[in-house]
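Re: weekly structure request thread

Next one in the queue (126 aa):
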Amino acid sequence: MKRSPMKRKTPMRRGNARAWNSTLNSVSPRQGRKNRKRIPVRDAYTRAHPRCERCGDRMWDVHEPWTRARGGPIDDPRNMMSVCRTCHSYIHQHNEESERNGWLVPAALGQAWLDAGGREQERRAA
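Done, posted below.
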């Protein structure tokens, strides 16, 4: 059977590909506001901590020890940690070890950890 390309009855419009493909937003308006609030805080944090806080290599990511999935805030510098991509992957692949070392915070302890100073408390202790 010969396969020929389908002929469109209406031409595709130029510009925003999402307009013809989907009506869903990539990020909800509420999450968009949170992300816009987080950007200047994250940028200031990365300028203050340019190296990976786990291995000392070049920083690529900002990791949140009390993760969003566990209820953590995304715009609080006490909940940020500069890490390289390798360390970031390692932290999320080894949850138990990361929780022991303070790189991940359990959901039940999150608010108490943040109230006690979060990563700032651990930095002062080191």
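Residues 31-125 form one domain. DSSP finds six helices and two strands in the chain.
Next request, please.
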